[in-house]
Amino acid sequence: MFMSVSRVARAVMPVVALAVTAPLAAQEAGEDRHAIASPDGRLAVEFWSADGLPRYRVTYDGEDVISASALGLRFEVAGNLDRDLEIAGESRDSHQSTWELPWGERRIVHDVHNELLVSYRHESGDGRGFDIRVRVFDEGLGFRYEVPVPDGEHRAIVDEVTSFAMPQYATAWWTQAADYNRYEYITRTTPLIEVETAHTPFTARLPGDGVHVAIHEAALVDYSGMRLDQQREGVLTAELAPGPDGVAVHKDGSFITPWRTIQVAEEAVGLINSDLILNLNEPNVLGDVSWVEPGKYVGIWWGMHIRTMTWGSGPIHGATTENAIEYIDFAAENGFDGVLVEGWNLGWDGDWFNNGAIFSFTRPYPDFDIEAVAGHARDRGVRLIGHHETSGHLTNYESQMEAAFDLYERLGVTQVKTGYVADAGDLIRIDENGEERREWHYGQYAVNHHIRVLEAAAERHISINTHEPVKDTGLRRTYPNWISREGARGQEFNAWGVPPNPPEHIAMLAFTRMLGGPMDFTPGIFNLTFNGPDSPNRVQTTLAKQLALYVVIYSPIQMAADLPGHYAMNPEAFRFIRDVPTDWEHSIALQGEVGDFVVTARQERGGADWYLGAVTDEEARVLDVPLDFLEAGRSYRAEIYRDGEDAHWHDNPYPVTVETRAVTSGDVLHLALAAGGGVAVRFVAGEAE
Ligand code: NOJ
Ligand code: CA
After folding, report:
1. Which ligand is nearest to the CA of 183?
2. Residue range 36-42: average pLDDT?
3. Does domain 34-279 have CATH number 2.70.98.10?
4. pLDDT tens across 193-235, in order?
5. CA 605 from centre of chain
6. Who's near 227: CB < 8 A, 6+ residues apart?
7. What separation in Å is there between the alpha carbon of 387 and the centre of ligand 1?
8. Which tens digit of pLDDT belongs to each residue from 145-189?
């Protein structure tokens, strides 16, 4: 997959990278500091030992982004690695390569970074310690622990003391962690000092120059997910989800941790326009993945959320043969690739939330003829999309998943949506002794469970879209069949959430959750007021904004989530959903502020057309967007879907004005977004000059 790789030894490392470490040299006399800068020299990090305490610090243009902060690991039994450590040596490298994403926001990814390895060893000389490997890119850095442990020895990590000290009055955008609803919380805006325990990606804007920072992790494999806990004022400290024995991570022999990542950008959109997380993941291990197919889908789904259908059996069972055939025909007629059917398998009756042990993943309800449905789909050139709701019973699922994927493979199903509906910390596994154990959705066991599922699915050329997942840390690079996931409040919260997603929700997600990777948000609700306009449960956007979501929210698979009948009633707006692709050659976040608005442009992969999506929060907004991303010298027909006259998410969400204009890269598009509104544009490429 690598197109070109060049490893450059220290001797030829760009001089600028060494020169800009100078501001960091404002160090206490005698301290042995080891610094490295980004290729453009603006971002720098240094490591040292402060009287035995391992420390690091990050600066941008010479100003602190992360001030002196702790490093270290603590274990269940003796041998902690958080004090009495000195630096025993270092090595350096730099790297430049480009590589290709089989599907993604862009095709070509550039990986340009400088690397430093700093070895901390215990002062006793017993050889114990860790190496910190840091890679510094222009738009952020990642560091990980590489811990040498003699073969055959076990380590039980109870605590990672990695900290991130930031100005207390930075503005923070965050969701609460360690709470029952996993990652599904409304994003809060507070001074940093008011952050409690937060998930990552965690985004902040520093006082002063307003530099934006996002803390996350990359390549979360065989480890426990990192939450950020504010123990001291202004200091966020890694908190690893514990296993049922109180140990966060068990390791045998030498090990590495996930990368702890710090993105830094002058403008908020700089956080989005970064491939840091992907670059810190390992290359594809699945080989040929041409069977992983991006695309659009519809499904028997929203009806259950607005309660016109049920997952379980009964008079309004959604997953009937008849309903499925109707959806398949609708999909075929409108150019969709897949049809999701939820509630097809035995186990939904009764309290399915708490009955994970009784789900069958191979036996359909009697009113769902899975062979006939899959056959009809194949005949119509559409795929049935599989569904496995586990209700968080990991062991029940693992015991059946091979057979379940075999069945799907035989039926021509190439994508499966999985679900882990259970309170956080309440996933169930049955251990070797038959005892029931409870796990976090982001603990080491669940992290490894997802990899097992991906591998079993990959053997049958099946891709996985995980709901109630572990957060995305860029593993789609290594396992390109991890095609999407949830991991935030999706559209479903508009059906029954208390409260539903607020108008600023998407402008928040774009700068927080979405920094991790694709989200199966399931956009495209046209009947926004399904319970009546005065019900608290409704979609708090305009209709035009629902269209914009297909461009703003990246996912290689996008659902048209509403009931087919609602699309039939509005064919003009529906046309945008039919047209918009889900796989891209280029993507650029053009403008935006966290929680306020965002404007994104993307070029279709394998095509010349561009698409633009703009969304705002509860404020109406006028935006001037230069079209300089279009190919110079080419004319385009802009098909604009914008909020109509007097549109407003609350009082008047439906008007959409569709208009066409000829534009070139020299034009500036003047976009008027209603309160809670948005704009979607397709730029149809004319002949190149
Ligand atoms: C939660 C998922 O997010 C949703 O999409 C699905 O319909 C239900 N679980 C049932 O599996
Ligand atoms: Ca969910």
Report:
1. 2
2. 98
3. yes
4. 999 999 999 999 999 989 999 999 999 999 999 999 998 999 9
5. 21
6. 177, 178, 197, 198, 199, 200, 238, 239, 240, 241, 442
7. 9
8. 999 999 999 999 999 999 999 999 999 999 999 899 999 999 999
419 Cβ below 6 A of ligand 1: yes
Pocket of ligand 1 contains residue 643 by CB under 6 Å: no
CB of 492 sitting under 6 A from ligand 1 = yes
| pLDDT (tens digit per residue) in 350-397 | 999 999 999 999 999 999 999 999 999 999 999 999 999 999 999 999
Q: Which of 572, 629, 488, 388 is nearest to 184 (CA)?
A: 488
Query: If you count them, how many residues does the chain have?
Result: 689
pTM over 0.70: yes
Report which bound ligand comes closest to the CA of 309.
1
Which residues are registered as beta bridge partners of 428?
Answer: 393, 438
Sheet-wide strand order for 154-160: 73-75, 154-160, 249-252
SS3 content of the chain, % helix, strand, coil (to 5): 20, 35, 45
Domain limits, CATH 3.20.20.70, in the chain: 295-487, 492-689
**Cα 685 from Cα 662, distance rounded (Å):** 10
- Considering only CA atoms, which residue is closest to atom 8 of ligand 1? 419
Fold of 295-487: TIM Barrel (3.20.20)
Judge if the beta carbon of residue 386 lies within 6 A of ligand 1. no
- One-letter amino acid at 86 equals E
**Ligand 1 close to Cβ of residue 182 (< 6 A):** no
Q: Where in the chain is the domain with CATH 2.70.98.10?
A: 34-279
The ligand minimizing its distance to the Cα of 359 is 1
Catalytic residues: 492
- 467 close to ligand 1 (CB < 6 Angstrom): yes
Nearest atom, ligand 1, residue 389 CA: 11
Please write the tens of the pLDDT for every residue from 81-115: 999 999 999 999 999 999 999 999 999 999 999 99
Closest residue by Cα to atom 6, ligand 1, is: 419
CA of 171 to the centre of ligand 2 (A): 28
CATH number for the region 492-689 comes to 3.20.20.70
Residue 12 has pLDDT above 90, yes or no: no
Ligand 2 centroid – CA 48 distance (Å): 43
The Cα 58–Cα 15 span in angstroms is: 19
Is 448 exposed, middle or buried, given 0-12, 13-18 or 19+ CB atoms closer than 10 A?
Answer: middle
Q: Assign 67 to helix, strand or coil.
A: strand
The percent of residues in the chain predicted with pLDDT above 70, rounded, is 96
Distance 459 CA to ligand 1 centre (A): 25
Dist. CA 129–CA 145, nearest whole Å: 10
- Which atom of ligand 1 is found nearest the CA of 467? 3
